[in-house]
């Protein structure tokens, strides 16, 4: 560019601390990443591309960005970045794998409690100036069996927090040993057993070919009547249409979702159900997590652009 400094293109809204952490040796440019034509135009000059989850970085973007050296995902999930296509083109991909894990776990717990006590529906009736106290009888977490699907960083934090409610914890994770789970006070079981025994289920998995559609109609049929299901991980891990049916039939008591198969999502059969609590992908949306995500990836970008070794986060 005219300035002679490497160009860092920011394509999603990131915390202001990100720009500070990038330092003065780069030229920062912004683009609205979901606006595809604008992204393809802006990426031509970029040495680094910073994204959150709304921008898709695929082969087309990588081909347009001939100068790209690094793609940085200010968050955990890499499902919006074609890592293989980047690697083929010699472009490094980094993320901020611990930046928002506490925020994500806290949001999953908040959603579970909101679903158990129908907080949003009760809130809506009162703000509608009606006092419907007898319409809302919830269930306790105390002494219940909670199944955690995916015992990675976020799943472990969610389990520890849910354990504080004196629950019995089950987990399914083919990559974790029973001994490690036992250390955490969690009984490791098969997915089938988790579905059969849990009163509450929360999923904490990345979206991959292996996990997409993991919980569909057949799996929901295995669950206990009255189960409450939470997904603050990735849309599509639980089949949305099947979940809506299971709630309508009265088999699933309630559900809470922060993520959807297609995002942004403004229309879903789930939105018509009072038993469903929804938020628009807010798991990582806290001041602290966004600060960390932005500054963590900014450091990696700075190192990569100055030709230094970028350590694993
Ligand atoms: C993540 O994978 O980190 C979350 O989806 C949050 C985000 O998109 O920022």
TrEMBL record:
Taxonomic superkingdom: Bacteria
Family, similarity comment: Belongs to the D-isomer specific 2-hydroxyacid dehydrogenase family.
Keyword DNA repair: no
Taxonomic source organism: Gordonia hirsuta DSM 44140 = NBRC 16056
Full protein name: D-3-phosphoglycerate dehydrogenase
Gene Ontology biological process terms from the UniProt entry: L-serine biosynthetic process
Coiled coil: none
Role played: Catalyzes the reversible oxidation of 3-phospho-D-glycerate to 3-phosphonooxypyruvate, the first step of the phosphorylated L-serine biosynthesis pathway. Also catalyzes the reversible oxidation of 2-hydroxyglutarate to 2-oxoglutarate.
Part of the whole protein covered: 2 to 314 of 531
UniProtKB keywords: Amino-acid biosynthesis, NAD, Oxidoreductase, Serine biosynthesis
Record-annotated membrane-spanning stretches: none
Enzyme Commission code: 1.1.1.95
Catalytic activity line of the entry: (R)-2-hydroxyglutarate + NAD(+) = 2-oxoglutarate + NADH + H(+); (2R)-3-phosphoglycerate + NAD(+) = 3-phosphooxypyruvate + NADH + H(+)
Pathway(s) annotated for this protein in UniProt: Amino-acid biosynthesis; L-serine biosynthesis; L-serine from 3-phospho-D-glycerate: step 1/3
GO molecular function: NAD binding; phosphoglycerate dehydrogenase activity
Lineage: Bacteria, Bacillati, Actinomycetota, Actinomycetes, Mycobacteriales
């Amino acid at each position: 560019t005219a300035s002679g400094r490497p160009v860092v293109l920011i394509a999603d809204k990131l915390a202001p601390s990100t720009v500070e952490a990038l330092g003065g040796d780069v030229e920062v440019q912004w683009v609205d990443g979901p606006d595809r034509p604008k992204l393809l135009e802006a990426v031509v000059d970029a040495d680094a591309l910073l994204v959150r989850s709304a921008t898709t970085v695929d082969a087309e973007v990588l081909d347009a960005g001939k100068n790209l050296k690094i793609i940085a995902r200010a968050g955990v999930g890499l499902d919006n970045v074609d890592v293989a296509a980047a690697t083929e083109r010699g472009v490094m991909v980094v993320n901020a794998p611990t930046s928002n894990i506490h925020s994500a776990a806290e949001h999953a717990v908040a959603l579970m409690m909101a679903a158990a006590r129908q907080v949003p529906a009760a809130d809506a009736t009162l703000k509608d100036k009606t006092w419907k106290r007898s319409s809302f009888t919830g269930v306790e977490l105390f002494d219940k069996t909670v199944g955690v699907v995916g015992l990675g960083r976020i799943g472990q934090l969610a389990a520890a927090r849910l354990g504080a409610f004196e629950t019995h914890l089950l987990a399914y994770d083919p990559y974790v040993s029973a001994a490690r789970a036992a250390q955490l006070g969690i009984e490791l079981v098969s997915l089938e057993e988790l579905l059969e025994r849990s009163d509450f289920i929360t999923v904490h998995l990345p979206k991959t070919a292996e996990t997409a559609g993991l919980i569909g109609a057949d799996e929901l049929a295995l669950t206990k009547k009255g189960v409450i299901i939470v997904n603050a991980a990735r849309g599509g891990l639980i089949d949305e249409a099947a979940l809506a049916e299971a709630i309508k039939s009265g088999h699933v008591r309630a559900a809470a979702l922060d993520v959807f198969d297609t995002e942004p999502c403004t229309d879903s059969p789930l939105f018509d159900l009072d038993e469903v609590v929804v938020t628009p992908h807010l798991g990582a949306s806290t001041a602290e997590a966004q600060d960390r995500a932005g500054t963590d990836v900014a450091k990696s970008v700075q190192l990569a652009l100055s030709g230094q070794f970028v350590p694993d986060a």
